[in-house]
Specification:
This protein is mainly beta. It has a single domain, classed as Beta Barrel (Porin), CATH 2.40.160. The chain is built from 3 helices and 15 strands. It has a 14-stranded antiparallel β-barrel.
């Protein structure tokens, strides 16, 4: 450690990670990247859609989370099905996780203008941990005798997603089961699985506010067993169907500002800044997140309304 302040910051970060069990990716611009939260989001537009996102969390803190993500999805069979693919590289401290997942959604009409989808996720993670770099007291503890290098872990998830032109709601468990026996075989009996279930509930709605403005409040509630419930509450304003400006709050963690610009009907770029409100605020200048999205074939469909989510 470079100095005492960094050591204390790492200790605080470790405590926060232990409490919240941040094993699934956490992003601030979740409302435009639903596939990372819910496999039933796949094919929810009438065209193929893709996104790239990078998040650097808790700047200036050594070992803080860094996440890079790519996703693409689209409809099939007259929009009765959806397929998606995602690639996520996540690093926290000594651990690295490269996750490759396929997403499938079965979609059905509910009423005249709404659709309900049921989604499945199947993926493979390559998990690594440089445990030999940790400081520990028991030199004979088998947990710290050998690094974990690209250990394959199968992951499976499930989700439900409902939406119409201006509203959405969903519930998901991105990882219902993880075949992580190889990385817990030397752990104490109490640790049966390293990867735990994360339960997500997310929803949002768009309200017209005059000729040039639309307002979209949204929320994401996250629950993990043995950890406090965390909630993201956001409000985004769309100006002239081109510029999104947003504010949000993540309980116990950060205030969030967001901006997204619709460069063309197909291309959009976004940025989010998290101002840390936890005890880590003394040691970090916050978190940064950039996003690039591209929609394929949207011009051919001649969609006049903007993309709300």
């Amino acid at each position: 450690m470079k100095n005492t302040r960094i050591y204390l910051a790492l200790a605080a970060m470790a405590a926060a990670l232990a409490a919240s069990a941040q094993q699934e990716v956490m992003v601030s611009q979740y409302m435009f990247n639903g596939l990372f939260l819910n496999p039933a989001y796949a094919g929810s537009h009438g065209y193929a859609s893709s996104s790239l996102l990078h998040r650097s969390q808790w700047m200036q803190v050594e070992g803080a989370p860094r996440t890079s993500m790519m996703a693409v999805d689209g409809p099939l069979m007259n929009n009765t099905m959806g397929l998606g693919f995602s690639l996520v590289h996540d690093q926290i401290g000594i651990s690295r996780d490269l996750d490759i997942s396929g997403h499938y959604a079965y979609r059905m009409r509910v009423g005249k203008s709404s659709r309900l989808a049921f989604g499945l996720r199947a993926g493979l993670s390559m998990y690594s941990a440089r445990v030999s770099e940790l400081r520990y007291w028991d030199a004979n503890d088998p947990m710290y005798q050998q690094d974990i290098v690209n250990s394959p872990i199968g992951k499976f998830g499930f989700g439900i997603y409902w939406h119409n032109a201006t509203s959405y709601a969903g519930i998901s468990v991105p990882t219902i089961y993880a075949a992580d026996g190889k990385i817990t075989m030397d752990a104490p009996d109490a640790l049966q699985h390293y990867f735990t279930q994360h339960y997500y509930v997310h929803a949002g709605k768009v309200f017209p506010a005059g000729e040039n403005f639309d307002i979209k409040p949204s929320t994401l509630i996250k629950y993990t067993p043995n950890a406090p419930i965390e909630a993201d509450v956001n409000c985004n304003v769309l100006y002239r169907e081109r510029v999104w400006l947003g504010l949000g709050y993540r309980t116990g963690d950060a205030l969030v500002t967001m901006i997204e610009y619709q460069v063309s009907p197909q291309l959009r770029i976004g940025y989010a800044y998290d101002m840390t409100t936890s005890k880590l605020r003394t040691y970090t200048t916050g978190s940064h997140e950039i996003m690039l999205g591209f929609d394929f074939g949207k011009d051919l469909l001649r969609i006049k309304t903007p993309r709300y989510f």
